[in-house]
């Protein structure tokens, strides 16, 4: 009940965080079987969280400049989604803009949230987690940048969220949700907080035609289960998750393709130095490539794929001691990833060897996480579903205070 009292007693306040990460990535090999090097400015964000109407209203806003800073995507071997492959797509300029109203009736707290943001499904946005490179399962484990209406109730350590949203994924950084698609999809998420800093989550979603804005593509059935732990000071963090997406032909109620992901990641800080590790196994569809080997048709020309590749990735990140200049905090880091890929079906004609010339890959990334303002602890939950706690210390650099709920 302590967390509920903290939520209901919070005073209205505005918190602003600016973030950008200049980095250089070398992937050997990457799409087309060649070694690629990219210099990019990723995760260019302006995040605002503000309270209003005493303690009853909240605004969550995240503006994302990746459409300007990395319009061709961020080099990320194994990644796919929204017409990109072996690169992470730039997010929309309005990544999040959600307004929440909350209230309470005795021990029951409740909230209603609407706008553009995350559906109540899966785990936190990877931008609020230790690794700079996104996991391959980004589109299996989160549903983001949707026009959504979400209700949440909380009783002691139990939280239930339900929401309806538009299934259409953005087609470009400037995309807005299709008004006629609003409400064609839904998701539900249950969370239990058995002890302080421990969170158990399970969610299910039915997403209508995410790949086809007109609504005539395959639908998705999505599941996610996770366990998350974070220490009181944010210095130790652990996440384990499993996610599955099944694509269905809704006209025949027939399952067509399915993809699974399992991921474990953890981080710890020893004084000024941070260490993070991620292990991931994720399945990815192999779609037709365009003349640009990093792009696939959007939308797809038909309902077929050329195969399914299973990726196994081990990533290590080391944070150097943070440095400050005025109000700006900088955390230098290096990430090294070892990747292995294999066809899920041994009879597949489309194999990593045919696509890349090998089934083993390296990716090395170095850069500086720049931030002004207190670190935001979480992203992807709203209202009474947003549990209090610190930001992960590897993100905060062990320095300036973090904005928490």
Describe the structure.
This protein has 405 residues and is mainly β. The chain has helices at residues 2-9, 66-69, 138-141, 352-356, 393-396, and strands spanning 14-28, 36-52, 57-64, 74-81, 84-88, 94-105, 108-117, 146-155, 158-165, 185-192, 198-207, 219-230, 236-249, 254-270, 273-285, 308-319, 323-325, 328-343, 360-372, 375-376, 402-403. Strands 1-2-3-6-7-8-9-10-11-12-13-14-15-16-18-19 form a 16-stranded antiparallel barrel. A two-stranded antiparallel sheet has the order 4-5. The longest helix is centred in the first third of the chain and has 8 residues, at 2-9.
What is the helical fraction, as a range of percent?
under 10%
Q: How do the strands line up in the largest sheet?
A: 1-2-3-6-7-8-9-10-11-12-13-14-15-16-18-19
Strand content: over 45%
- Rg on CA atoms, Å: 20 Å
Total DSSP helices: 5
Kindly state the number of beta strands.
21
Q: What fold name goes in the CATH topology slot? A: Porin
* Overall residue-averaged pLDDT value: 90
Features:
405 residues, 16-stranded antiparallel beta barrel, two-stranded antiparallel sheet, 53% strand, globular, disordered C terminus
């Amino acid at each position: 009940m302590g967390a509920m009292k903290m939520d209901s007693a919070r005073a209205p306040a505005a918190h602003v965080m600016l973030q950008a990460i200049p980095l250089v990535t070398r992937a050997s090999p990457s799409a087309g079987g060649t070694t690629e090097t990219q210099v990019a400015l990723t995760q260019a964000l302006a995040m605002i969280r503000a309270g209003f109407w005493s303690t009853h209203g909240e605004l969550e806003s995240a503006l994302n400049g990746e459409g300007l800073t990395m319009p061709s995507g961020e080099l990320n071997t194994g990644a796919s989604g929204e017409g990109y492959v072996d690169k992470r797509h730039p997010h929309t300029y309005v990544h999040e803009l959600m307004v929440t109203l909350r209230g309470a009736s005795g021990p029951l707290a409740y909230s209603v949230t609407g706008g553009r943001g995350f559906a109540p499904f899966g785990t936190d946005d990877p931008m609020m987690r230790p690794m700079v490179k996104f996991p391959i399962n980004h589109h299996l484990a989160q549903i983001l940048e949707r026009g959504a209406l979400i209700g949440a109730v909380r009783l002691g350590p139990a939280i239930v969220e339900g929401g309806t949203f538009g299934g259409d994924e953005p087609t470009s950084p400037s995309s807005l949700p299709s008004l006629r698609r609003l409400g064609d999809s839904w998701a539900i998420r249950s969370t239990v907080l058995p002890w302080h800093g421990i969170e158990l989550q399970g969610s299910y979603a039915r997403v209508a035609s995410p790949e086809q804005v007109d609504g005539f593509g395959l639908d998705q059935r999505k599941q996610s289960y996770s366990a998350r732990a974070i220490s009181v000071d944010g210095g130790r963090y652990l996440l384990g998750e499993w996610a599955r997406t099944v694509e269905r032909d809704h006209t025949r109620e027939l399952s067509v393709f399915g993809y699974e992901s399992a991921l474990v990641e953890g981080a710890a800080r020893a004084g000024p130095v941070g260490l993070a590790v991620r292990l991931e196994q994720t399945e990815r569809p192999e779609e037709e490539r365009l003349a640009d080997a990093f792009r696939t048709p959007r939308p797809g020309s038909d309902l077929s794929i050329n195969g399914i590749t299973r990726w196994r990735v081990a990533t290590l990140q080391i944070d150097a001691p943070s440095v400050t200049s005025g109000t700006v905090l900088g955390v230098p880091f290096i990430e090294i990833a070892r990747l292995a890929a294999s066809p899920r079906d041994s009879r597949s004609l489309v194999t990593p060897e045919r696509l890349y010339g090998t089934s083993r890959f390296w990716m090395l990334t170095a850069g500086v996480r720049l931030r002004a303002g207190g670190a935001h602890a979480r992203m992807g939950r709203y209202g009474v579903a947003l549990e209090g706690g610190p930001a992960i210390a590897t993100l905060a650099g062990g320095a300036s205070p973090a904005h928490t709920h």
